[in-house]
Amino acid sequence: MFYDMDWAITFTTDGQDHDLLTMAECSIICSVDNLADTATIVLPEAVFNEVILKDIESKIKRGSSVVIKLGYDGNLETEFTGFVENITTNDNTLKILCEDALFLFRKSVKDVELKPTSVKRIAQLLVNQVDPSYKVSCDYDINYEKFTIHQATAYDVLRKLQEETKGNIYFDAATKTLHIHPPYVEKGGEAKFSFHHNIESSSLNYKRAIDKKVEVHIKSTSLDGKVKEVVAGVTGGDRITLNVGPMSDADMRKIAQAALLKSNYDGYDGTFDSWLIPVVRPTYTVELIDLDYEFKNGRYYVVAVTTTFGSGGGKRTVTIGIKVGNG
Predict the structure, then answer these.
(1) Structural domain spans, the chain
(2) What's the pLDDT at 48?
(3) What are residue 209's phi and psi, to 5 degrees?
(4) In 41-54, which positions are buried (b, 16+ CB within 10 angstroms) versus exposed (e)?
(5) Fewer CB within 10 Å, N- or C-terminus of the chain?
(6) pTM over 0.85
(7) Can you tell me the distance from the alpha carbon of 242 to that of 217, in angstroms, rounded to the nearest whole number?
């Protein structure tokens, strides 16, 4: 059975909707390991010998909202919502670079030194300055002995928190809520994939926990200037080093354990390619089915999905993280 792929991209500028009528390709990158999801829409600079750059720039600008929908036979799913971050031209193509709702946090915040503080209190401080109507949902209990904000946007501060704590940070524009959660805790939907049915290709490797030797080093400089270090994992394994702000040994261990989660299971790691159905997003649980090697069957947490589509059709590249159960 064959299906016709359909798409719809709508920009809204100053209250006016503008539907995109032509496109060369589009790529949407969603990941719990990145602060913001992004979309890149590529257009030919000239269509039917008419230059479209002026027309685009008259209707679309930085800060215009964008909604991207995708599906088959008119059954469209919303794949991305966000804002235009930039428009570029190069090599006879026009690119519209978009960012999810965390674009709204690209606002400067006041310089401040917080002693002591927590991830939740830092998030609330940012929200109070960006838009007091926003809310914070944070269940990631990481505390700082000192946290400094200097010549930064709220987005910069959130990026630092994400890099140091590895937390899952995103903004839900529908509920006006900034979310900060521990890695791999939040659960989205579910989907099934079979190596004999709907996995087009894969670079998945089956490994055992005993072979995934990882040694995590968390380093921090305390308020008295002393450098301290927390080490977790297997001595002699692949080394991961993270530098964090001043915090307790207990909080450093939380971050170290979060970094180790990817290594303590027998199962697959890597990526696989599929089509647009079934829909799958980061935080989803996917069940992988291998009819030839049933012992490899299992359920995995999705950490990233790259969705690409254009005249040649569409596909998803799914990156799995930790194993959350057997098949």
Answers:
(1) 5-99, 105-181, 187-208+264-327, 213-263
(2) 44
(3) -55, -35
(4) bebeeeeeeeebee
(5) N
(6) yes
(7) 6
